[in-house]
């Protein structure tokens, strides 16, 4: 496994990748130390991998600079994730830049229209924020609910940035 910590226009981000794809990403953090701490325990035994992660780093940095970048092409490693969570994450990755979808929509597309709460749990346990853009999932009435890192202000900030540049 390989890790990288880098600064973007929105804050510090850490990523951990395997030969199968990105295993974990942090949200936007205030310091490199807090970004690296957010990708534990995966980063504990990883090697610094600047060369391995250079393309991923460039795409994420461009996204954080407000560019309409499609991050869904970045391979992710979802080993150990439940089948419903994998499907929910896969579906979430199809939500276009600058748009939102409801938890109910996500549950339906993931195979169980009655699993909106489970879809919410899949987003709450998302270990790949930005790559699995859980900030684009909102309540049926359009209101914002639950988000890691800086919480709802960060979710709102990401959505506003995407709307402005879409």
Count of beta strands = 6
CATH fold-level topology of the largest domain = Arc Repressor Mutant, subunit A
The domain count comes to: 2
Helix content: 25-40%
Question: What's the order of the H and E elements?
Answer: EEEHEHHEHHEH
Describe the structure in your own words.
The protein has 166 residues and is of the alpha/beta class. The chain folds into two domains: 2-73, Methylated DNA-protein cysteine methyltransferase domain (Double Stranded RNA Binding Domain, 2-Layer Sandwich); 83-165, Arc Repressor Mutant, subunit A, CATH 1.10.10.10. The protein has six helices and six strands. It has helices spanning 32-37, 50-64, 83-92, 103-109, 116-124, 152-165; strands at residues 2-8, 11-18, 21-25, 47-48, 101-102, 137-138. The strands form two sheets. It has a four-stranded mixed beta sheet with strand order 3-2-1-4. It has a two-stranded parallel sheet with strand order 5-6. Strand 2 (11-18) and strand 3 (21-25) form a beta hairpin. The longest helix has 15 residues, at 50-64.
Summarize the structure.
The protein is built from six helices and six strands; from the N terminus they run βββαβααβααβα. With 166 residues, it is α/β, with parallel strands linked by helices.
Descriptors:
single chain, 166 residues, alpha/beta, Double Stranded RNA Binding Domain, Arc Repressor Mutant, subunit A, 2 domains, four-stranded mixed β-sheet, two-stranded parallel sheet, 6 helices, 37% helix
What's the layout of helices and strands?
Blueprint: E1 2-8, E2 11-18, E3 21-25, H1 32-37, E4 47-48, H2 50-64, H3 83-92, E5 101-102, H4 103-109, H5 116-124, E6 137-138, H6 152-165
Parallel strand pairs: 1-4, 5-6
Antiparallel strand pairs: 1-2, 2-3
